Amino acid sequence: MTCEGGKQVTGRCAFVGSMWFRPDFRGRGLSRLLPRISRTVALARWDIDFNFSFVESFVIATTLIDQYGYANYAPGVEFRNGPKATWTCTSCGCTATNSSPTS
Predict the structure, then answer these.
(1) CA proximity to 94, closest of 40, 49, 37, 43
(2) CA-closest candidate to residue 102, choices 73, 72, 67
(3) What residue segments make up the domains of the chain, in order of their start?
(4) Has residue 1 got a pLDDT over 70?
(5) Strand partners, 102
(6) 68 Cβ contact list (under 8 Å, min separation 6)
(7) What's the sign of the alpha-carbon dihedral 40, 45, 47, 49?
(8) What mean pLDDT do residues 70-82 have?
(9) What is the average pLDDT across 17-21?
(10) Contact present, 72 and 93 (Cβ < 8 Å)
(11) pLDDT-derived band of residue 96, with 50, 70 and 90 as boundaries?
């Protein structure tokens, strides 16, 4: 990870992400609700310091990223030799106390 945001990922961390919704469940507000529930459970269960996720570029280009409620995001994550060959994405994250409750 080469993005500046990667330096903030410290302490007890939780990966909160990689959700996919069936087409008939899309547009019902789940992308706003479920990331917050996941972060809340991780904070309550494991007392995390930081939570993060990775998103594809099209998510940044739309308002979908705002619905996830992350305080920060930055490009610069690259996965190599995976199912998508090389996948370049954006890191999203926030500390346990600085998520974006109004997004």
Answers:
(1) 49
(2) 67
(3) 4-17+30-95
(4) no
(5) none
(6) 31, 32, 35, 53, 55, 92, 103
(7) negative
(8) 79
(9) 80
(10) yes
(11) low
